[in-house]
Design brief:
Strand content: 25-35%
Structural class: mainly beta
Shape: globular
Number of strands: 31
Largest sheet: 6 strands, antiparallel
Helix content: under 10%
Distance between the termini: 44 Å
Number of helices: 6
Length: 646
Amino acid sequence: MRTKLLFGACLLGFCVCFPPSLSAATTCPTQFNPGSFTKGNFFSNFNNNCYLIPFSTGNGSGSEQGDLNSLYNKLFFNVSTSIPPYELIIVGEFPNARYFSIGLYDNHSAITQNLSDVEVVPLTSTYTNPFQPGVAFVNGQKYAVPIKLGGSPGTQEPGCMMTGFNVDVNAMDGTQRHPYMNWNLDPGFFKANPGVPDHEVDTPTHSDPNPAGVIIIRNYLSLTKFTSATLPHVIVRDLASGCAYPASMVNTMGIVTTGSSTGNAWLNQKQVQNHNLFANWQPTDCWGIIPTSKIQWIRGDEYTPGANPDASYLFAYTPAGLPQTLASAGEVMRLRFQVPTTPPTPCTNGCSRSGGEQMRYLSVSFQVSGGGTLASLPDSCPVNSLAPCTPLVQDANGFVTLIVGTGVTQPSWVTAANGYTWVDLTKSTTANYTGLNEVAIRDILPASGFSCGGELVPYKDGQATTAGAGLMGLYAPVIDYPVSTSLPQTASELSGTNTCAIYPSGPPQVSPTCGVAPAKVPTIGAMTTQCAAPGCTEVVVQPQPPLSILSLNGMGGFGTFPLGLPYTGNSDFIQITDNTQSWSAGHTGDACTVQIGEWSDTAISLVANVNQNGVCPMAAGDSLTVTVWNPQNTQSAASLTVTVQP
């Protein structure tokens, strides 16, 4: 298995103390001074170097197990109760990049909320979001994202107001905990790991909020250099007055930091370790193999600290010593596959994405034990890239033949002109190529109509199904080891079954014994929400309840969810019905949606989007029914009715 990314690993980079300011400041205050801002507004008074706290900057090198075509901005936060309630205001400029997002992680290093680039509303109507279809990039387009940390706003002072600015529309709640990956619901885990503490969850009354976390801003294939004007920053805002704390004060308050040693101490490292333990304890499953491929592709764990919720990660785990073995035999690693269509961005000539592309971004990375990355090849490279960039050479149909050398000489005909992509891992300057242990595919933001992406593979499952086919069709690379001198003069397209998302009739078996297990009739034994842990057996009224639907004594029958995980929306496979108040959520045509985090043959975890603006209200005493249809046999369903508890 691959080495887990430790979320607290330090990002390489720098910190600066100058702002992308809307106003200049020459003499900075050293004390919090509400009452002195009678003119202007929050941004004219505080978006300057006296108040701005910079993010750290780094990429996927070192131990980050990341994509070398990415740039990350990172900041730890701590919710202190020793000072009056406050919030964090992220201010920044939209980058000229292929993809951009802002992720919020709790003190388990697990994602709680995420803003994909198209979801970020510009600061005012005069600015544009360049990630919207048909919108070209323009420098200087600003945004602001508040991180709410509890407490109620007071009477804002005249010069501290945000009236007329789009800020709260981007708000994220830093007090929320992640709703999934809860080992309290798995008695087998406690039996196999005696002494493991309970998984920390909040209460229905939100009396155990998240106390700390991390903000990560991601940029892929960015043409925007991080300078004093473009680096994102945070302003700490007092809720009572709306005014900001000077940066010199914030640096002594112990509430934000870019230092990993300080920030990691704010996180619950024991829970992080037990999340990794739980993820590793869960079995890897497989339906079959692709016989023409030397290595099979497996989707990664649901829990990886700091993982991007917009991305799916698939891994081909290489045998120990493979680079040396190939070099000794005069062989190369060959990956043949099809690449989805992606946008032409970023660029400097006014291009824009159409919105009809199959995927936002795809890359192939070669990684070593410990999390280092040797090389990352994206679907394409921008002109005048800020960092060295080797694209995947595609033919007219998007097919790639990637040749990986680990010590052999590049054949003279293995060139882009002949349809080949060549990468020599021995030339890597970021890690030792002899430690190669996995090849990773990173898919980001597939289109809703594209059915061949990695998110359609269940967590910890192989993408191969039966009869030599796979869930990703020809979009999953076939790997073999030809002798370098035997490669044809011109690369040829991969052939084979080109259907995607065809799920077998039964669940997969535990690896390495691949096969289709007998399908079962679904049986629901319990439906619970976030309440007393472990052993909660009730549904408790609360805003947006995180529901867990468990099979009867692990008998299963829920099948495999075919729309990709995580998933938000409605489908033909689940429905939550409030019989008392006559509404339903989660099923096609329902007024309210659900967010599905996990769906295995024996358990489903979701958040029901109830109590939204008065729609789908839920109260204690309501009769609640859940119905589950097996997606591989929709004639097979099960229901359970419970009474909602106070």
